[in-house]
Design brief:
Elements lengths: L8 E2 L6 E9 L4 E9 L4 E7 L8 E9 L5 E8 L4 E3 L3 E3 L1
Parallel strand pairs: 1-8
Antiparallel strand pairs: 2-5, 3-4, 3-6, 6-7, 6-8
């Protein structure tokens, strides 16, 4: 997130717009990515459709998300067989 990885602390710009970039390799076609974040009271989820991927793929993804007033963020990837992978959180300032 904005160049920071899991368990690191990233600064969120005043606009709240943050860039999440990742490289992924998978066996089954992907179903969706989910950006999960929280503000200390609520948990927020933003789902991104990835069902246009094929089996045995590899790609770099970049997502822009509004993280204004959030304290942490993490990313999940899910394939069509309901297998999931996720990152540890990135702390936000």
């Amino acid at each position: 997130m904005n160049g920071k990885g899991a368990c690191e602390t990233a600064k969120v710009p005043r606009s709240g717009k943050a860039k999440i970039a990742l490289s992924a390799a998978w066996t089954f076609p992907l179903n969706f990515a989910e950006i999960v974040s929280g503000d200390g009271k609520e948990v927020f989820r933003e789902r991104i459709n990835l069902n246009n991927t094929l089996a045995f793929g590899r790609n770099q993804f970049e997502f822009t998300v509004d993280l204004r007033k959030r304290k942490w963020v993490r990313l999940e990837l899910w394939d069509i067989a309901a297998n999931g992978a996720f990152t540890q959180q990135v702390w936000l300032e």
